[in-house]
Design a protein that fits this description.
Low-confidence stretches of chain B: 6-52
Number of strands of chain A: 30
CATH class of one domain in chain B: Alpha Beta
Mean pLDDT of chain A: 93
CATH superfamily of one domain in chain A: YVTN repeat-like/Quinoprotein amine dehydrogenase
Radius of gyration of chain A: 19 Å
Distance between the termini of chain A: 44 Å
Helix content of chain A: under 10%
Helix content of chain B: 25-40%
CATH topology of one domain in chain A: Methylamine Dehydrogenase, Chain H
Largest interface: A-B, 29 and 27 residues
CATH class of one domain in chain A: Mainly Beta
Strand order of the largest sheet of chain A: 1-30-29-28
Radius of gyration of chain B: 22 Å
Strand content of chain B: 15-25%
Structural class of chain B: alpha/beta
Largest sheet of chain A: 4 strands, antiparallel
Mean pLDDT of chain B: 85
Oligomer: heterodimer
CATH architecture of one domain in chain A: 7 Propeller
């Protein structure tokens, strides 16, 4: 791994740093209406895209792609710049609260800190964080800590300001797929391939308790494979519940036959409250969950049944609304202040969908 | 009784091509009832005992064996032996150096990388068959499947050519998770005695334990009685079928006496630890145990690689299980002095597409993939053949299933260009349209 990975740029379609932030964050808070879901933007890269996050400012989105590169998109114009530092695919992206910095985690196991609004972003810090893939990262509510998880089955917590390791939490036995800071900033949730969902106390650095999310794991004996896992985690804003997304009914894991599934737990005692299913989507997996201000949980599903935005509340087992995206989706992020959702797709597209 | 059109004996059935032609000229090969062989009396049907097989006996004396790893479903060459990191088709996995300078393989095989000096990568395999069943058939028989003929698999041919007459264990053993523990049907015209015995994981063959409550004396009397009845029946005429039945009974009896060979718990605790206590680790240790006890052909199936969906997750999982036990076995065969006598092959029915599909999967791809060989007469620490930058086509050293089959046999000292005589028909041991890959043999 070179100390200073070279950033590469392609001819930007628009100025590197977005100059006119007008449409990103309206002066008045918008009202999100899931029934108004519609695609409002559609931009193309030249390779399949993997992951995305929208800046807290709402001005830019960052995506990653199968060519190991990252792209910064101007959400007002669709202009982009391309930059590279990782030596493998990047599945994990996270902005700082002010939107000036991005942390990325690659399948080569490194974390990189980027001054993301620079004309030609270059990593200001690189940390060899994991043995093998980094699958997910999250940032503490105050922005001070970064948590990372991956194939080495270890949870690591880092000071954002220095890249210094704060904690190393061992307790998972298989690949860890997802991580989420609790809103109190003192607890961390992590989910793995086998459906183990651990709650860690960051003060004591100990495992506090676990939730049983085994329905999200399948061992298919004929194919002799473990499959599924906790692909996404979210807590509705009340903090009273915890949701975990993934898949079930994996009758043919190797052939992409499996259905999206979301589990809803009572946070206080770990009791399973609801098993949210999605009829009519025989090929899908929930890649990510996001909580909306009204308590609705939004999921993105991709698979042989295409791409879907799915909306759940705590009253119904089935989703309360679904919206079919134009193509199979792989990741999603929402900018709550504007109601804009970014989704990335295997067909090379970054699509912007609005809930307004 | 219907005449059986298969070989009734072992290596003695094999006739060198020039010997066959010479015999034809002398007019000595015609007729189906030929005397001789280890069982008294004439044999009707099948292949007679044509020669005393001096060459074959010499071959057996060298005590060669074959070990095949069947990566069921179609192993991705890009996540294993022929990585293309940083290219359009490369996926997220990186390449790592091996014990052989200049040869890199996927980072998913770190232990195997340290044994590369024992192995040879054939990166130019093009079998032009993307169907699972047909692909498996051609890789195991060296020939394309046709309704007109059935051909014996490499395991049956190896058992026939390499097994010693006094070998008490079966010569053709498959270790297949969930394999059912019965007998296969891979020998075609070689006859049922060269069919496989399939072990279900690490379990011994089915029905190989003496029934509970049966005293040794009672058991002995049963077999004495069977032998007497059998002899009476055979006195009225032997066929290849009756010979096969007789052989099966005798082999079963010998196998019951050596049932402990199938028990990996007899291996040391440290060895069990080194191989890992998961299923595949124990199966590799069992393979070592069987080879060490003189079994001529062992095939271990590792499943499943048919990764149309989430190829990378599944290869992480499967190769993570495969890597260490396989590397340990290769290393142990070398340490034990068995690698010189043991051909190791890692094959699939085909490779996987360089293109990554919408579901992070790879589909079937037979145009450009990799087979690994090692041990016996195979060149060590070599990479033969090459694919282009994105792995879509073979650009050097293209080989197919026919050439590979020849090469497997030549690697253990078998002249793959010889023929068998079955009911007066000359049947080439390997596809006569193909040739061995001499460049990978020493």
């Amino acid at each position: 791994m070179p100390d200073q990975p070279a950033a590469t740029t392609q001819t930007p379609a628009t100025p590197a740093t977005p100059a006119t932030p007008a449409p990103a964050t309206p002066a008045q808070p918008v009202v999100l209406d899931i029934k108004k879901t519609k695609v409002t933007g559609d931009w193309t890269y030249d390779r399949p895209l993997l992951a995305t996050r929208i800046s807290p400012t709402g001005l830019v989105a960052v995506t990653s792609s199968e060519d190991f590169q990252l792209q910064r998109w101007d959400l007002a114009t669709g202009g982009r710049i391309v930059f590279k530092g990782h030596e493998s695919w990047v599945h994990a992206l996270q902005f700082s609260p002010d939107g000036n910095e991005l942390v990325s985690g690659g399948c080569e196991g490194t974390l990189m800190w980027w001054p993301i609004l620079d004309a030609e972003p270059k990593p200001k810090r690189t940390v060899q964080a994991h043995q093998g893939w980094i699958r997910a990262i999250d940032r503490s509510p105050d922005g001070a800590l970064i948590a990372s998880v991956g194939n080495d089955a270890v949870v690591r917590v880092w000071y954002n300001a220095t890249g210094e390791k704060v904690a190393e939490l061992a307790g998972h036995e298989r690949h860890i797929y997802s991580v989420l800071f609790h809103a109190d900033g003192k607890h961390l949730l992590t989910g793995d391939l086998t459906g183990k969902l651990h709650l860690w106390d960051l003060d004591t650095r100990k495992l506090e308790r676990s939730f049983d999310a085994k329905p999200l794991h399948t061992y298919e004996g004929g194919q002799r494979v473990d499959f599924g896992g906790i692909r996404g985690l979210a807590m509705p804003t009340s903090g009273a519940q915890l949701c975990a997304g993934g898949l079930h009914k994996a009758t043919n894991p190797l052939g992409a036959v499996h259905e999206p599934l979301m589990l809803r737990f009572n946070y206080a005692d770990g009791k399973l409250l609801k098993t949210h299913i999605c009829d009519g989507i025989p090929g899908g997996v929930i890649w990510r969950l996001q909580a909306l201000p009204d308590g609705t949980i939004m999921a993105v599903s991709g698979g042989s049944s295409g791409g879907w935005l799915l909306f759940f509340n705590d009253q119904q087992d089935k989703e309360i609304h679904r919206f079919q995206l134009p193509a199979l989706a792989r990741d999603m992020d929402i900018h709550l202040a504007s109601g804009r959702i970014a989704t990335v797709h295997a067909d090379h597209h970054l699509r912007i969908t609005s809930l307004v | 009784m219907q005449r059986a059109t298969y070989a009734c004996g072992t290596h003695e059935h094999v006739l060198r091509r020039r010997g066959f032609l010479g015999a034809l000229a002398g007019g000595t090969l015609f007729g189906s009832a030929i005397t001789g062989g280890p069982l008294a009396g004439p044999v009707v049907g099948g292949l007679g005992w044509l020669t005393q097989g001096q060459a074959a006996e010499a071959l057996q004396a060298r005590d060669m064996r074959v070990l095949v790893f069947n990566m069921h479903g179609g192993l991705s060459q890009l996540e294993s032996w022929d990585p293309k990191p940083g290219t359009k088709t490369g996926g997220p996995c990186r390449a790592i150096p091996t014990s052989v300078p200049g040869i890199h393989i996927s980072e998913l095989l770190p232990y195997t990388a340290q044994q590369m000096h024992h192995l040879c990568l054939l990166r130019g395999v093009n079998t032009a068959e993307d169907d699972h069943g047909k692909g498996a058939y051609l890789m195991m028989t060296g020939r394309r499947q046709t309704p007109a003929a059935e051909y014996p698999q490499i395991g049956s041919v190896s058992a026939m050519m390499l097994s010693k007459k006094e070998q008490s264990l079966p010569g053709h053993i498959l270790i297949t998770p969930g394999g059912g523990g019965g007998r296969g049907n891979e020998s075609a015209y070689l006859g049922p005695r060269f069919n496989s015995i399939a072990l279900d994981g690490q379990k011994p063959p089915l029905y190989s334990a003496k029934p509970d409550g049966m005293a040794d004396e009672v058991e002995k009397r049963r077999h004495t009685f069977r032998e007497r009845i059998n002899a009476e029946f055979l006195s009225r005429g032997r066929t290849a079928v009756t010979d096969a039945y007789t052989h099966s009974y005798e082999q079963a009896l010998r196998l019951m006496e050596r049932r402990d060979v199938f028990d990996v718990n007899k291996e040391s605790a440290s060895d069990q630890e080194r191989y890992g206590k998961n299923d595949f680790g124990r199966q590799c240790l069992l393979a070592r145990r069987l080879l060490s006890n003189g079994v001529s052909f062992v095939q271990v199936t590792h499943s499943n690689y048919d990764t149309h969906n989430e190829n990378f997750n599944f290869h992480l999982e499967q190769l993570g299980e495969f890597d260490k036990p396989f590397a340990t076995l290769v290393s142990d065969l070398h340490t034990l002095g068995l690698l010189e006598q043991t051909l190791v092959v890692v094959l699939s029915e085909f490779g996987r597409t360089p293109n990554i599909n919408l579901y992070y999967g790879r589909d079937h791809w037979s145009k450009a993939w990799t087979v690994v060989m090692g041990g016996a007469k195979v060149a060590r620490g070599a990479a033969f053949g090459a694919t282009n930058a994105e792995g879509t086509e073979v650009v050097d050293g293209q080989v197919d299933h026919g050439a590979l089959f020849h090469t497997y046999l030549q690697a253990v000292g078998v002249d793959s260009e010889q023929s068998l005589m079955v009911d007066g028909r000359e049947l080439p041991l390997a596809d006569p349209a193909a040739k061995p890959i001499w460049k990978v043999l020493v």
